[in-house]
Amino acid sequence: SPWNPLFQAMESEISAAFESGEPEDILSRAFKLTVTREDICTLQPLGWLNDRIMNFYMGLLVERSKKEGYPAVYAFNTFFYSKLSSTSHKGVKKWTKGVDIFEHDVILVPIHLRIHWTLLVVDLREKTIKYFDSLGQKGDHICKTVLKYLEEESREKRNIELTASEWTLHSMGTEEIPQQNNGSDCGVFVCKFADFISRDKPIIFTPEHMPYFRRKMVWEIIHQQLL
After folding, report:
1. Has 116 been annotated as catalytic?
2. In this model, does residue 4 exceed pLDDT 80?
3. What is the full DSSP assignment across 37-95?
4. Can you give the pTM of this predicted structure?
5. 209 given a catalytic annotation
6. Are 50 and 60 in contact (CB under 8 A)?
7. Residue 79: pLDDT above 70?
8. Which domains are delineated in the chain?
9. Average pLDDT, the chain
């Protein structure tokens, strides 16, 4: 197939990213982030994705959303929710300086819960807040915390009162979204939940796709381009 040489070139490039050179080598730079070989190596099988990889991938999703035909996406960084939950709105007020998050369609909030990654998604078109956890835990309190943040952000930035009763908050159930079958894929699940949602696509992948997604993400991060 004509794709074969291309695929082989990509595969050898991915393997080289893991295997050659020093841990501190810089392999990609964008979104005010620097990704080293050590960071990329967290994408090896059963590796635990770190903040740099998560934030870089969210940056790629936001970039893509600027193209024609995609919903407008805003992504908070992985430190946002822990700061919000420990300090309330005033602790993160400056994070959206010069940005009106309400001008977007979808807001992605990757969440770091000590040893687990999850994702919260605000759909401003539908007025929904959904929580995606590949271990099936509920995040109703997280949804409420973010709704309260949105109310305060709207009041402060736009002088508009959100009507909380118009919003639907929902933790996705284990029958609604795929679940991880090991202790290390949560970060990849979060990235792919975000990828499908930011294209308005139904989430149809399975845990079997994880090894492939990991390798694909290596290529995408190095080339700063989503396939």
Report:
1. yes
2. no
3. HHHHGGGSTT----HHHHHHHHHHHHHHTTSTTS--EEE--TTHHHHHHHH-HHHHGGG
4. 0.93
5. no
6. no
7. yes
8. 6-223 (3.40.395.10)
9. 93
